[in-house]
Amino acid sequence: MSRAPTRAASRASLAESFLLMGTVVTVRVVGDRSETEMRAAIGTALDLMRSVETTLTRFDDDSALRRLCRTPGELVAVPPMLYYALQVAVEVASLTDGVFDPTVAPYMEALGFTRHYLTGNDLRSGIAPGSPATFRDITLVEDGGRVRLERPLALDLDAVAKGLGVDLAAQSLAGWDGFLVDAGGDVAVAGLDPDGSPWRVGVEHPAAPDRLLRRLRVGTGAVCTSGSGKRPSPVVPDAHHLVDARTGRPADGLLSCTVVGPQAMMADAVATAAFLLGPARALGFIEQTGLQGLCVARDGAVRETAGMAGLYDA
Amino acid sequence: MAGKPSTTLLILCSTAVAAIYAGAYVYTEPTAGASIAAGQTLTSGTGAASSNTGAAKSASGSTSSTATTSKQSSSGSTSSTSGSTSGSTSSSSSNTSKSATNAKPAYKDGVFTGSGTNLYGQLSVAVTIAAGKITNVKITSYAMHYPSWYISPYMNKEVVKMQTYQIYGVSGATASSYNFAEAVYYALKAAKA
C-alpha cells in the first residue's frame, strides 16, 4: 500500500528554517501528504534537535553537560545523549592523539567564544586555558549512563552535537519519500528530492562562498564541512573556532574539509578532526575512518579521497 | 590497520544515534501531538509564518519596508503554545524543571517577532518563549532566496541558476546565525519582562 517512489515525478515538499544549535537549521520533507502532516514531522525533527542543544550546550548552566562539569571526581549518572556524545568525542580524540579534544572549551573561551548565540549572555567555565585536563580524564563507565571527570575540566561537544542532532532528526523522518536536514552546512538527505530525483548536495567553495566547489550526487547520506571561514574570534584577529587542543591555537593549514558518510555525527566529527590535523594528515585520516572527503588548502588547492570522483554529479 | 578505527568509530556513532533515538522516542512520543498544536498556533499567531515554504517567500507587507522595527504578536493564542512547548521541553529529563523554578524569568511567555536586514535583504524571526525560556526561533521570512550562499549581488544570475540546478542543500563551514542577530535582538527586546 505504500507509495513506491517513482522516478523523476515531482511531489509535494515543505521546508522550514529555524535558528538552533548556533546556526541556521532547515528541515525539508518530501511526500504526498497533507501540509499538516508535513509541519508535524518537521516539528518532531526539530524537537529532537532542540533536545540535543538543551542537553549538550555549554551556554546554559542547566544543561547536562554543564552540570557534569560541576562535579569533577564524582561518578555521576548522565542522560544517554551526553554519555554517547562523549563516547564518540573521546574516540575521535583518541584517534587524533588529542588534536581533537572535547576538553578544548577553555581555549575557545580565551578566543572569545563565550556568548550565547541568541541572548548574548556571557557564560564561562572558570577553567583556565592550559589546564592539564584532556580527554583522557573523562572516564565512561560501560553501562551507558555514568561518567566521572578525573579533573576539573570544561567540555565543548559542538563537533559531535550538531551532527547528532541531524542524525536524530533524520531518524524521525524515515518513512517519508525523501527528506533533507541541514544544520549550518551539516547536510543529511535520504530518498528522493522534490523533483523525484536522488538528492544532490553542493559543497561550498570556502574562498568564494557564493560558488559551489562540487556538486555531489548523494542520494542517501550525509555531507559535512568544517572550515575556518565563518566563525571568526571576536577578540583575537585572524583566529577562528577550530582549535588544536594540544596547542590551544586555531588550526590554520586548511580552509575547509568536507566529509561524506552514512551519518552526520561521524562525518562532522571526522571533518573537524581532519581539519585540525592539517594538510599533511587530513586526507589520510578521512581514509582511515573509511569515509570519503576533500580538503581545500589555503592556496585553494583541492585534494580528495579516491572515491569522491564517483559522487560527482555530471 | 586502517580497517580497525573506521569500524570502531562507525559502530560507536551508529550505536549512539540508535540508543539516543530509542530513549528520546519514549519522551517525544506524547509530545508529537503537542508539537503539531505548537506549529499551528505559531502559524496563526504570526501571519508571515504560514506561507514559509523555504525558498523565495517574500516578507509580508507590513515588515518588508521596516528595517529595524519590532513587532510583538503575543496574542491570546500564545497560552496554548506555552503549554505544549513546555511539554516537549520535559523530554530533556530533569534539565528544565530546575530552571523553571528559578526566580525571575528573563522573558515573558509568548511568540515575539523581530525583523532585521543584512547586505542582501530583509528577514524576520518568530521567537517562542515558554516558562521564561527560548523554546523556538523560526525564520518566518527571508526576502532573498534561502539559503543565502547562492544569492550574491555580484554574480551573474544565469551562472547561479546553472550551478544551483536541483541543489537543495549545501555543505559549507558552519553558517553563522549572525545574519539574524538584529531580528533576534528585536524579538527578545519585545519579550523582555
Number of helices of chain B: 6
Pair of chains with the largest interface and how many residues each contributes: A-B, 94 and 79 residues
Q: So, CATH architecture of the largest domain in chain A?
A: Roll
Tally of domains of chain A: 3
Average pLDDT value of chain A? 92
Rg estimate of chain B, integer Å? 20 Å
State the fourth-level CATH superfamily of the largest domain in chain A: ApbE-like domains
* Content of β-strand of chain B: 15-25%
What's the shape of chain B? Answer: flat
- Main-sheet strand order of chain B equals 1-2-3-4
Please identify the structural class of chain B as seen in this structure: alpha+beta
Number of extended strands of chain B? 5
Oligomer: heterodimer
Assign the structural class of chain A, choosing from mainly alpha, mainly beta, alpha/beta, alpha+beta, or little secondary structure.
alpha+beta
Helical content of chain A stands at 25-40%
Biggest sheet character of chain B:
4 strands, antiparallel
Order of helices and strands of chain A: EEHHEHHEEHEEEEEEEEHHEE
Sum up the overall morphology of chain A in one term: globular
- The amount of beta strand of chain A, in percent, is 25-35%
So how many helices of chain A? 7
Q: How many angstroms does the end-to-end distance of chain B come to?
A: 59 Å
Q: Helices and strands in order, then pairings?
A:
The complex is a heterodimer of chains A (314) and B (193).
Chain A: E1 13-20, E2 23-30, H1 35-56, H2 64-69, E3 75-77, H3 80-95, H4 105-110, E4 138-141, E5 146-149, H5 158-172, E6 178-183, E7 186-191, E8 200-205, E9 208-217, E10 221-227, E11 243-244, E12 249-250, E13 254-261, H6 264-277, H7 282-288, E14 292-297, E15 302-304
Antiparallel strand pairs in A: 1-2, 2-6, 3-5, 4-5, 6-7, 7-10, 8-9, 10-13, 11-12, 13-14, 14-15
Chain B: H1 3-45, H2 61-64, E1 70-72, H3 78-89, H4 95-100, E2 110-118, E3 121-130, E4 133-142, H5 157-164, E5 167-171, H6 181-191
Antiparallel strand pairs in B: 1-2, 2-3, 3-4
Helix pairs in contact in B: 1-3
